[in-house]
Design a protein that fits this description.
By secondary structure, this protein is an all-beta fold. Helices cover 3% and strands 63% of the residues. The chain has a single domain, classed as Methylamine Dehydrogenase, Chain H (7 Propeller). The strands form three sheets. Strands 1-2-3-4-5 form a five-stranded antiparallel β-sheet, with no helix packed on it. The longest helix has 4 residues. 28% of the residues are buried.
């Protein structure tokens, strides 16, 4: 959704009844959304100048944590399957790993090497192997990393 402020609507797919409505969730609109594996949390990326990340208790419409990303566009966000306190964001020239602890969010930049450092990451997914999440990312140049 694009606008001065973006709303989030969550509905049940088979009956289409509204389960949650979060008014004015993010400035500038909503760029990306993802649910945690257990379905209890929702993460959103705003279309503001900082591509702000918000973690929600979507049933209550309550913000659990907020953090500024950076100026580069974020194209995707995913929760780690094995740990709902960890997320990944990706987009123009970046991949960031996030950790949600208490009311805060911290991040670390992915080390992609010289070949992929300036690439744009368009999609991502993960698998869990030996209780650790392994990320697979697709870039605008056609590479899988």
């Amino acid at each position: 959704q694009i606008g001065l402020k973006g709303d989030i609507h969550i509905w049940e797919s088979s009956g289409l009844h509204i389960m949650s409505f979060i008014r004015d969730a993010q400035k500038g609109g909503i760029a990306a959304l993802t649910f945690s594996q257990d379905g209890n949390r929702l993460a959103s990326i705003g279309m503001d100048d900082h591509q702000t990340l918000v973690i929600w208790d979507w049933r209550k419409g309550q913000k659990l944590a907020t953090a500024r990303n950076h100026g580069n566009k974020v194209f995707g966000i995913k929760f780690a399957p094995a740990n709902s306190n960890q997320l990944i964001t990706f987009g123009v020239k970046h991949v960031r790993f996030w950790t949600h602890t208490g009311g805060g969010l911290t991040w670390r930049q992915a080390k992609l090497g010289d070949k992929f450092r300036q690439d744009t990451v368009l999609s991502g997914g993960s698998i869990t192997y030996d209780e650790a999440d392994q990320w697979v990312l697709g870039t605008s140049s056609g590479s899988i990393i």
